[in-house]
Each structure stands twice: as C-alpha cells, then as structure tokens.
C-alpha cells in the first residue's frame, strides 16, 4: 500500500531535470520513475529520495523514529569523510588539488602540502627574492629580481642544491587548531632543499562539526 501511494503510474516528472549540487549525481528515485539528485552523506533520505550508491551510501533508519525518514550513511557503519561534496573511504589517500595531499582517517582527514614553504631571505647575489607562479607548474618558485635591471632569474641557478646531507632537525606537529571542522597544524623543520629552518603547515580535521540545532518552535 505504501509503495502504491508513493509510486504513481504513469510517472509525473518535471520536464527539466533538477540541477544537482557538486558531488551529487542524477539518479532514479525509489520508484524508478523520475531522475532526482542523489542524497549525500548526512542528508535526509526516504523511500523516494535515495542516497548516492556510487559512494557506498544507504538510507539508515536505525536512529530515526518509526514512520519517518532516515539519514544517508555508509553501509555497515563504515566511516569516511566528505570533501568538496565527494565522499572518500576511511584510509583513502586523495589530492583535492595539486598542492596538497590528504588522508581520510576515522571520519576526519589530515593534509600535507606538496609544495615547499621555505622562506628565502635577501642575499648579495639575490637582493630581491620573489615567489611567483610559473605557467605550467603547480607550485610557485623563487626568482631573483635585480633592482637596476629588473631581470628575473630562477633562484635555483644562484642557490644550487646542497651537495652534502642535511642533518634533520624539527619539532613535532602541533595539535589541530580547530577542535572540529577544518583547521591546521604547524611545525618547524629544516627538511628542504636549502636546509633552512621553515614553518610548515598542513590541513587537519579532528572530527566533523555537529549539525546546527534546528530553530526553536514559536510559542503560541
């Protein structure tokens, strides 16, 4: 009877398919009738509004009152993390951009930069160092600009790589700056091509922030 009430035949679907948010594909509803936006992790779901099965999500009714909808969750309570509308499995390593690499772990994620964050101080052979974006390259690079001629040179041409191993020195990563949601951790290390002390940062998330409580109902 419930299926007969929800699944009308013939189908009554909007002429133009809905525009879905990023990371939410168009799928058939629970009746196999109309194309709808798949629900993502943590979003409400029911018989008609189905979850994104391509991300391993199912409609979880375990914590919902009888007769109400559920919430999209991983099958078998498998934990994962959602970044920019895409869900990653626990233990998965991914790159949101070419500049950082992240690791999904226990519902949160840690990210480390893939670009050097060294600080170049002025020197006699490079009095005006600048860091610029190079076309075709992901990471910015240091260049030297002469004050009188305004000539740009690659910093590596005047500062060759170290020919001897650098004795490692550094501090431990600090705690995440945010107790929930996206934050960052820092450390000081000399592990770079110039063996200079630099402050390094990486993104981190200890746990997702809880959903905001619903507004209190008006008192009549």
From TrEMBL:
Keywords: Cell adhesion, Disulfide bond, Secreted, Signal. Residues 1-75 form the IGFBP N-terminal domain. PROSITE patterns: IGFBP_N_1 (PS00222), IGFBP_N_2 (PS51323), TSP1 (PS50092), VWFC_1 (PS01208), VWFC_2 (PS50184). It comes from the Eukaryota. One of its GO terms (cellular component) is extracellular matrix. SMART domains: IB, TSP1, VWC. The keyword Lipid metabolism does not apply. Transmembrane segments: none annotated. Belongs to the CCN family. May play an important role in modulating bone turnover. Promotes the adhesion of osteoblast cells and inhibits the binding of fibrinogen to integrin receptors. In addition, inhibits osteocalcin production. This is CCN family member 5. It comes from Phainopepla nitens (Phainopepla).
